Amino acid sequence: MTTVSTTLTTELLLHRAGTKSYWRGLTYRDAVQSLRVHSRHVAARVRGSDEAAYAVELSWSGTHLVGECSCPHGSEGFFCKHCVAVGLVLLDRGETVPPPDAEDVELRDVLRALPAEVLRDLLYDQAAGDLKLRARIMSSLSKN
Ligand SMILES: [Zn+2]
């Protein structure tokens, strides 16, 4: 199911991070902890040089690889060395960042377990600020 446009490669990591962060990321592979591949994203913790642990998330936005990290450089919006390290460990393990259209089994399972009242409140909060979603909900009443 994975398309060519959402394939994780070292070249893509280099392209996203730039040479400096990419080379620094190469030395951070051993610092990657608690790597977890979720339905549509990857989450990990990476130890920084000062022993602080940073939270890293990799995902796709369309065909764009997005890296988010809680370190100072990552917080400024850069694809930092910690994001590179997580990407490299994934590749080492033969894993990847799941495509954005992957079936989100985790989400379905949680939604199934939540009471209707909680779901209603969540959906209201979302739809009240999203005219398209609101229109979908309003039109589903007339279909039923
Ligand atoms: Zn970082």
Main attributes of the structure:
144 residues; alpha+beta; 4-stranded antiparallel sheet; 46% helix; 19% strand; elongated; binds zinc ion
Let me know the number of strands.
Answer: 4
- The number of domains is 2
- The chain-level structural class is alpha+beta
Query: Which geometry do the CA atoms define?
Result: elongated
Strand order within the widest beta sheet:
1-2-3-4
Name the poorly predicted regions.
none
Largest sheet properties: 4 strands, antiparallel
- For the CA atoms, what is the radius of gyration? 18 Å
Number of discrete helical segments: 7
**What small molecules are bound in this structure?**
zinc ion
**Overall pLDDT level:** 93
What share of the residues lie within helices? 40-55%
How far is the N terminus from the C terminus?
33 Å
Listing every helix as H and every strand as E from the N terminus to the C terminus, the arrangement reads HHEEEEHHHHH
Could you tell me the strand content as a percent range?
15-25%
Report what the structure shows.
- The chain is of the alpha+beta class.
- The chain has 2 domains: 10-93, no CATH class; 114-143, no CATH class.
- 46% of the residues lie in helices and 19% in strands.
- The chain is built from 7 helices and 4 strands.
- It has helices spanning 10-17, 19-26, 72-75, 81-92, 105-113, 116-127, 131-143; strands at 32-37, 41-47, 53-61, 64-69.
- The chain has a 4-stranded antiparallel beta sheet with strand order 1-2-3-4.
- The model has no long low-confidence stretch (mean pLDDT 93).
- Bound molecules: zinc ion.
- Residues 54, 69, 71, 73-74, 80, 82 line the site of zinc ion.
- Zinc ion is lined by residues 54, 69, 71, 73-74, 80, 82.
